[in-house]
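Task: sequence in, structure out. Protein: 7TM GPCR serpentine receptor class x (Srx) domain-containing protein.
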Amino acid sequence: MTKQILDYLGVDMSVEATSAIRLLASTLILAPAVAGLALQALLGIALYKGWKTFGENSFYIITVQLMWCDVCALMLDLYVAFPLILTGTQYMGNSTALYYVPLAFEGVAFNGIFMFSSFLTINRFVLFIFPSTHAKIFTSLGTKM
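Result:
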């Protein structure tokens, strides 16, 4: 069915990307991933320094969890997306352990980023609009690491 659709649209899948396009595309994956990991490292240092002071704060706890989801997603971009785009081949083959398990972790990481970002937004909204409700709902009970 997919081949019929591609034929109908006039798409020729036998055309390969040039090495210049592969290099550009892989650089566009590599540069933001490395910059993101560097920024996450700085955030991690700041969060580690303030752990004793802010460890009970719900914003702090959510931020730590969001940071780990970001790190997981960025590392998997470097492990899967960067080499795949640079080489143009799936160098891991169909290995479940080397390819599909990391992709499952990437799905978990992106869902975590979405959920923790939403949770953080709700947390801040409730804090500024309903401060008394915030104190009851967002406690560190059960979220200690």
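The chain has a mean pLDDT of 85.
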